[in-house]
Write a sequence for this structure.
């Protein structure tokens, strides 16, 4: 069993619609207006895959745990932002990253022969109705200057 299979098995991860594998590990029993106050997941992304460009309604924090660094892309009206989750802050990597609600984002593992293991915390808690996978055609219309990235992450 290789390292990636080990983590998928030990953390009991399942396929995620955006790519990679995940498992919800926490959902607050407290609610506000019918929503859990927060949720937490593990997320593992293989190097030969990618996190599809998607949008969440609310803020999400990503926390790096293990593996290759991961580049995250934010498509915004004012342009493209790139951030790297990883263990080397001297090289511009961060242990955590805030993805503001409403941001279209996706990512890729930098070492294509390995994987990235992170966790994500969301408040208010995640519900699949808050998850959107925008169509490639609409993304290209809204962000024509980033067509190659859109092709890579959709």
């Amino acid at each position: 069993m290789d390292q990636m299979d080990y983590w998928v098995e030990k953390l009991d991860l399942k396929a995620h619609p955006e790519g990679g594998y995940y498992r919800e590990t926490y959902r607050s029993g407290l609610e506000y207006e019918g929503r859990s106050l927060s949720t937490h997941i593990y997320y593992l992304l293989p190097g030969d895959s990618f996190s599809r460009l998607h949008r969440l309604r609310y803020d999400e924090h990503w926390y790096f745990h293990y593996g290759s660094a991961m580049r995250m892309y934010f498509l915004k009206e004012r342009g493209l932002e790139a951030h790297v989750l990883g263990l080397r802050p001297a090289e511009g990597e961060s242990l955590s990253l805030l993805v503001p609600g409403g941001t279209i984002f996706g990512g890729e593992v930098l070492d294509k022969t390995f994987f990235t293991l992170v966790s994500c915390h969301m408040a208010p808690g995640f519900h699949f109705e808050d998850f959107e996978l925008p169509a490639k055609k609409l993304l290209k219309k809204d962000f024509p200057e980033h067509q190659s990235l859109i092709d890579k992450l959709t």
